[in-house]
Amino acid sequence: SGCISKHATVNLKEDKLFLSKDGVSSLVTSILGVNMSQGRSYYIEPHLLQRNMAEAVAIEFEGRYLLAVDGYVYVADSRLKEFNKYSGTESYQYEWTLWDNMPVRVWHKDRDYLYFGTADGKIMQMQKDDGRNFTEFYDDIDTPVRCYWDTPYIDFGTISRNKNMKGLWVVLQPNVRTSCDIYYKTRDTIALSPNYTVFADMFDFGSIDFTRFSFLTNDGPHVVSTNRKEKKFSLMQLRFENKNSEPMGIYKVQIEYTISSKYEGR
Q1: What span, in angstroms and rounded, lies between the C-alpha atoms of 78 and 235?
Q2: Residue 8's closest CA among 51, 63, 46, 55?
Q3: Of 225, 141, 245, 143, nearest in space to 182 by CA
Q4: How far is the CA of 159 from the CAs of 54, 153, 255, in angstroms?
Q5: Number of helices (H), then strands (E), in the chain
Q6: How far apart, in whole angstroms, are the C-alpha atoms of residue 251 and residue 57?
Q7: Which one has a higher pLDDT value, 53 or 2?
Q8: What pTM does this model have?
Q9: How far apart are CA 196 and CA 228, in angstroms?
Q10: Residue 11's pLDDT is what?
């Protein structure tokens, strides 16, 4: 496949990425010295291929490939690669993050910061968390940045039996201010059920919130348990969300459940 946008060709940690009509590809050289392309965007192609990719612009910043098109930015991290059934023996796929509401027309970077220009002439600077944990690092012009992660539907090893969830545990990355709204959706419900919020705030004299007071001082991963119960479902989907001006990091999730009666459907 040929290159579709001359402004989206970037070298990401020696991975020569370019944008074609089939998505993001890499130019690699085989052991026989033959140049060939390998796909790198399998996980985002259903979304990406609907965009006007000829107008895409990309940049490398701090080990990430940022591809902007039609108000979205697709972010590939050079550290997060997967060798799986969608990859050949010598190829891999990146894990991707999607940012919306990003009117990027041109990118620019210096040693410390990333900038972009908009179609109407504005120059915007991407904020960075410098370790001081100020809430403005998680705002978009004074509006909190909403982030979430959805799992696929989980069948817990069988679709013919009902399950009863007895509890859920999540390992959160602690921070001075951090929380996570957990939503549950079963196959038999139309919408996500009411959320359950967990916190992993660390004690800090500089930003005490007595409504969320915590003596937690350990800066390692923090296990938070919920007492959420869910009965007689076949499939379940989870959403982990934060819509406040604060970071959110999830390391691991565990669900305790039992297998019960035969699933009859609805």
Answers
A1: 33
A2: 55
A3: 225
A4: 43, 11, 17
A5: 1, 21
A6: 31
A7: 53
A8: 0.68
A9: 8
A10: 92
